[in-house]
Specification:
This protein has a 7-stranded antiparallel sheet. The chain is 23% helix and 24% strand. The longest helix has 17 residues. The chain is of the alpha+beta class. The relative contact order is 0.09.
């Protein structure tokens, strides 16, 4: 199978992470796709046997992205740096509608707690950021810190980095 090729903006190899295409067929690498103010379709890193892009159920619009993996929908803001909690009802919406919800939060400067879904309307309401794009309200951050303390007490510590397993990325 042939790799998808070079990004139409920067010229770098686009066959890394999740490349995207627009309606006109322009190819974007991961980084350049996050800078576009238009809806982009995620594609596989390889073309099919006929040289066509293979679409995947992922959409990107600027800093907002929605991914589907094994029927689970995940949403992110900040180009993937902030996990966005989706309610069970939102997870059933068409991906384009989910992108619309994400964009409305970006426009307002709001966030959602990655653990419970509470709306965080100011930066001061963000109590902490656990690993892997998490963002927590005060209550969930306290629970996260309690979990880390419990893991330390029980000796659930990574032998490579010395951190509790819930705070380890080894």
């Amino acid at each position: 199978m042939e790799r998808v090729g070079s990004c139409s903006v920067c010229g770098k190899n686009a066959a890394v992470n999740t490349p995207c295409v627009d309606k006109e067929g322009n190819l974007y690498c991961y980084e350049c796709s996050r800078k576009q103010n238009k809806l982009l379709q995620g594609i596989d890193q390889y073309k099919d046997d006929n040289g066509r892009y293979i679409t995947v159920p992922d959409l990107v619009y600027g800093e907002c992205s929605v991914f589907v993996c094994e029927n689970e929908v995940s949403a992110y803001l900040g180009g993937g740096t902030e996990s966005f909690y989706l309610t069970p009802a939102e997870q059933k919406l068409p991906l384009e509608e989910i992108i619309g919800i994400l964009r409305s939060y970006v426009d307002k400067g709001w966030h959602r707690c990655s653990s419970c879904g509470k709306e965080l309307r100011t930066e001061t309401e963000i109590a902490g950021r656990p690993l892997f794009a998490g963002i927590c309200c005060e209550e969930c951050w306290k629970k996260h810190l309690e979990l880390l303390a419990e893991e330390r007490r029980k000796g659930y510590i990574c032998s490579m980095c010395g951190r509790p397993y819930s705070n380890c990325c080894c």
